[in-house]
Write a structure and sequence with these properties.
This protein has 502 residues and is of the alpha/beta class. The chain has two domains: 114 residues, Urease, subunit C, domain 1, CATH 2.30.40.10; 323 residues, Metal-dependent hydrolases (TIM Barrel). The protein is 38% helix and 20% strand. The strands form two sheets. An eight-stranded mixed sheet has the order 3-2-1-4-13-14-15-16, with helices on one face. Strands 5-6-7-8-9-10-11-12 form an eight-stranded parallel sheet. Strand 14 and strand 15 form a beta hairpin. Helix 9 packs across helix 20. The longest helix is centred in the C-terminal third of the chain and has 17 residues.
């Protein structure tokens, strides 16, 4: 039994409804869980032995959920990858060897904690080392040492390794130089565990080893419908249902993906996922930039969650997801950084502001501005649902895990904010990651007043520098030299694909 703690603040927000903003309240925490939210005097009487910390001039609220990221501690520009159209940008990574996922995940988790994130969904990420299980376990070690709560997606891909749709691969390879064609045709280890059986086997081993961990959980993370066969998607959906875990997949992120999916699934991508049993309340969809009105309607009816990644979608020329349409049609929306925030940081409050601004229409007959409750839900409870952790995180209520963030109100209220402006509107409009005063996960303070409490940041950064420098040596030097040609041919292929699409 850990010692009881009481955190007292000027304001406590227990959930996404602005009506749940309570002045002069406190939170009683014991054994990593929230016991009660009440007046400080009441909680002290209830738990006189508890340590009391007063957070002056602060808002205490549920910890933020980054519902889509990849455990990358460095912005891609720092690694030498300039922003580009998604498919050409992915190809640039062939110039690099595999880094060590451990320090990258450790520092990424530290960066998120410093920005008030207490839970993250680590989407399918493969560095192509040939040992995907080793990569996952190394990343889990990093998250565990940082103390961040993480949902690790076990990735899967069994088609579209060269281009999508898969049926175009032979023609694409035929149009390349002999050197590039041979390099791409040479058998390589699968990017993830392998086929359906191998993927389920990997999940079984991870659940056996981490099943009782208080901050680590799992879901399946198929790369996306154009990258996974129907057999893979349906099989993972069945096993996820059997195990009571979720599914988190990229879908309709780029125009090229949209065009490929139009050919693969003429009845609509979400309808196809639904037929496979891969669309439900346990499913979260990253990006969804090119979802059609029918896609949105079906996803909303099935109770799925879409994760908005505003900065990444702009930087990689994917477009602007129709957040206003999502909300109007009742589709649940969460927020993620994709480790490609517009400012190259992990300021999830900044990404939320960007998503809100991009949702505003120039039409006079449509109100597209997300409400305060919409934005708070995207940051907290909707991310909790995407993570399959609803009722455990995302709200400050008795029995929930003690994942909280305290935001300092001083800077955002200076030099003046009109008294008519609701406090939460001012917070959402003006607060940034630098206003995070305290971040707590499972009842443990991991970040306070600008400093990590359990990780030596300088040492973590040194490890990241070392693995980033080492990864400059490509796994396949011959292919690395051919990347410019590969990018040019990918542009040609996807330009033709999208030119003929609706």
């Amino acid at each position: 039994m850990s010692a009881a703690i009481i955190l007292a603040a000027d304001y406590v927000l227990t959930g996404p409804d602005p009506e749940l903003l309570l002045p002069d309240q406190a939170v009683l925490i014991e054994d990593g869980r929230i016991v009660a939210v009440d007046l400080l005097t009441e909680l002290v009487q209830r738990a006189p032995e508890a340590d009391v910390e007063r957070l002056e001039d602060c808002l205490l609220m549920p910890g933020f959920v980054n519902a889509h990221q990849h455990g990358r501690a460095l912005d891609t520009l720092q690694l030498g990858f300039a922003d580009d159209v998604l498919e050409a940008w992915i190809a640039v990574r062939r110039r690099r060897g595999p880094p060590d996922p451990y320090p990258l995940a450790l520092l990424a988790a530290c960066n998120m904690l410093a920005n008030g994130v207490t839970t993250a969904i680590h989407a399918n990420t493969s560095y192509g080392s040939g040992n995907y299980e080793g990569e996952l376990r190394a990343a889990l070690r990093g998250y565990d040492e940082a103390g961040l709560r993480v949902v690790m997606c076990v990735g899967a891909q069994d088609r579209g390794l060269v281009v999508y749709p898969e049926e175009d691969a032979a023609g694409f390879l035929a149009g390349l130089s002999p050197e590039l064609g041979q390099a791409l045709s040479t058998p390589m280890p699968p990017p993830y565990a392998g086929d359906l059986a191998a993927t389920i086997g990997l999940m079984d081993r991870l659940l056996a080893d981490y099943g009782g961990h208080p901050r680590i959980s799992f879901c399946y993370g198929p790369a996306g419908p154009q990258w996974a066969t129907d057999e893979m998607l349906a099989g993972l959906a069945r096993d996820a249902e059997k195990k009571g875990i979720g599914l988190h997949l990229h879908a309709l992120e780029s125009r090229a993906q949209s065009a490929a999916c139009e050919r693969l699934f003429p009845g609509g991508t979400m309808r196809h996922l639904d037929r496979l049993g891969a669309l439900s309340r346990r499913v979260s969809i990253a990006h969804g930039v090119w979802m059609t009105p029918t896609d949105i309607e079906i996803a909303a009816e099935r109770g799925a969650t879409v994760v908005r990644n505003a900065g990444s979608n702009l930087r990689l020329r994917n477009g602007i997801a129709p957040l206003g349409d999502f909300l109007r049609q009742g589709l649940r929306v969460a927020i993620g950084t994709d480790n490609s925030a517009l400012a190259g940081d992990e300021d999830i409050l900044g990404e939320l502001k960007l998503a809100a601004a991009l949702a505003r229409s120039n039409r006079w007959d449509v109100e597209d501005r997300p409400t305060t409750a919409d934005l708070l839900a995207m940051l907290t409870v909707n991310g909790a649902i995407a993570a399959q952790l609803d009722f455990l995180i995302g709200q400050l209520q008795g029995g929930a895990r003690a994942d909280l963030v305290a935001l300092s109100l001083g800077r955002l209220q200076q030099p003046y904010v009109d008294p008519s402006v609701p406090l939460l509107d001012a917070v959402l409009a003006r607060a940034t990651g630098r206003d995070v005063r305290l971040t707590m996960v499972d009842g443990v303070v991991l970040y306070r007043d600008g400093a990590l409490q359990s990780v030596d940041r300088a040492q973590a950064e040194a490890q990241v520098r070392a693995t980033a420098a080492a990864s400059r040596e490509p796994a396949d030097p011959a292919l690395a030299e051919l990347v410019p040609e590969l990018q040019a041919q990918l542009r040609r292929h996807y330009a033709g694909l999208t030119r003929g699409a609706a």
